Amino acid sequence: MEQFTPYLSAFSTLIGIIFFVGIVWWAWSPGRKKANQESAELPFDLPDEFSKDKS
Question: SS3 for 4?
Fold first, then answer.
């Protein structure tokens, strides 16, 4: 079993890198542009709960 340990470690690292690159590719894909823009605007769309002017 000890002879397979380095290969398992390398394989798990490779799988992790593939998942990371896949998530980054998905997040930056052109089809997600509108959803990313909407998400970026969410903090500014919230009502100002602590406004000093309550008129």
Answer: coil
